[in-house]
Design a protein that fits this description.
Two copies of one chain form a homodimer.
Chain A: E1 21-23, E2 28-30, E3 33-36, H1 39-46, E4 55-60, E5 65-73, E6 78-86, E7 92-99, H2 103-115, E8 118-124, H3 141-155, E9 162-166, H4 169-180, E10 185-189, E11 195-196, E12 210-214, H5 222-230, E13 234-237, H6 245-253
Parallel strand pairs in A: 1-4, 7-8, 7-12, 8-9, 10-12, 10-13, 11-13
Antiparallel strand pairs in A: 2-3, 3-6, 4-5, 5-6
Chain lengths: 256, 256
């Protein structure tokens, strides 16, 4: 019987392409030989219709990217011989400070942020975040890791982002934010701000690191914006429209 | 009994904020007096918990934005007295040519594109679009209009975008695309292209109009890229990662 960990994502259905088969050290049973028997196997069987001798793009979590030849694939597992050749793409040098979204949006946003190459995410509490969001099972480390993994598989990247939870706003913004954002350009998204969101050439090297704060649906309160400004964050706007958080995050990140 | 048209969106649940109550001429029973009894009423009752004398932001489809005072609200309908004062925000001067996404992604993408201010969308067929997508009920004019409406309500905009369907690629790119993109800068998104996606100040006036082509998951084929290049489209990239279509569209549009 196929052993599948029950998880919340209908991963064979959603808009996710497994452009990379991401392996962890525990998948290896021998040097350069890996075995998989979980949702990745289902994906190979059902979506990619992988057969023996297929060659797949593979990556090692926090390691390199290369190729894997399928030695064997059946109903219960697949075995691959792999070799790694190149580094993953450079990280997007943006630290994201994000008001905790509602659970269903959180899943997609975490995944999209991983797709875009962000490696450091701080989920914070603000006035307009409902207390119930902090109890969501989708906030468990396993569930967050799953969405990050799906994002890396889509983007063809291996470097696992880190996500921290900060359920108390004032201690976060007074005691932690300064260290988190040290030596970075700092911006807080705020509809109606005078300053436009800056942008760079997406293919440039040596982009200056940025810390970007994005609020909840409905925005940060004036008090919260002041607290960000006290730590040097510049309010920026993306134009006259009120964007939902999911679109706003993609939009802001893609300018770097 | 409340008469609700059955529609596919679980609109009371998804990441949609009704920041604007959008009215059509048929909602008016008297000059400046409108009555609603559909999902917008449900939203007022359940999410906004609107009471008589509440003042709401309202807009007239393809018209102005203003405010409405709730005269009466009960289980079956709400009546408002409205006055319109200001123009909607300027359109984003981008015509989007988009390979038809899978149905579930289509809904969100249509909505997001409306949120971002795009007014002209051409859904086209390419090699990697599955034929079944063209049969989806989510492609009906009513369903498309619904997603556009939700986008306008989120963004606080009134100007209804237009969506055209083009199930045949070659006639579209050979006979229609030149006229569609006349007098615009023309770009086709292509992972791996040398040219970076251009960007502008989001708050600038007089931004040059752009026609932007975005492919399916898996990208345009080399043949399709050539056809776009024949009509003067420049291949552009957003960097080394493979973005899913939803993120790519938000990312590309937000650079204008």
């Amino acid at each position: 019987m196929l052993s599948i960990k029950p998880i919340h994502t209908n991963y064979l259905n959603a808009d996710h392409s497994m452009n990379l088969l991401l392996l962890s050290p525990s998948d290896f049973y021998h040097q350069n030989r890996a075995r998989i028997d979980d949702r990745r196997l289902l994906h190979l069987q059902n979506i990619l219709k992988t057969a023996p001798e297929s060659i797949l793009k593979v990556g090692l979590i926090d390691g390199q990217i290369g190729s894997g030849t399928v030695l064997k694939i059946d109903a219960t597992m697949a075995e691959l011989e792999v070799s790694f050749e190149r580094d993953p793409p450079p990280a997007l040098p943006v630290t994201l400070v994000l008001a905790l979204p509602r659970p269903k949006a959180l899943r997609r946003i975490i995944r999209n942020v991983a797709v875009l190459g962000v490696k450091r995410i701080h989920l914070i509490n603000v006035w307009k975040v409902e207390k119930s969001y902090w109890q969501s099972p989708l906030l468990s480390p396993d569930n967050i890791r799953e969405q990050l993994t799906l994002g890396l598989e889509q983007a063809v990247d291996t470097v696992m982002p880190q996500v921290s939870l900060h359920p108390l706003f004032k201690p976060f913004v007074e005691d932690e934010l300064n260290d988190i954002s040290k030596n970075t350009l700092t911006y807080v998204a705020h509809p109606g701000a005078d300053n436009p969101a800056p942008s760079t050439n997406p293919q440039a090297d040596n982009k200056p690191p940025v810390t970007l704060a994005v609020g909840p649906e409905g925005g940060f309160t004036p008090y919260e914006i002041e607290k960000f400004e006290e730590v040097g964050f510049l309010p920026i706007s993306l134009g006259p429209r009120i964007l939902n958080v999911e679109v706003a995050v993609s939009a802001l990140l893609c300018r770097y």
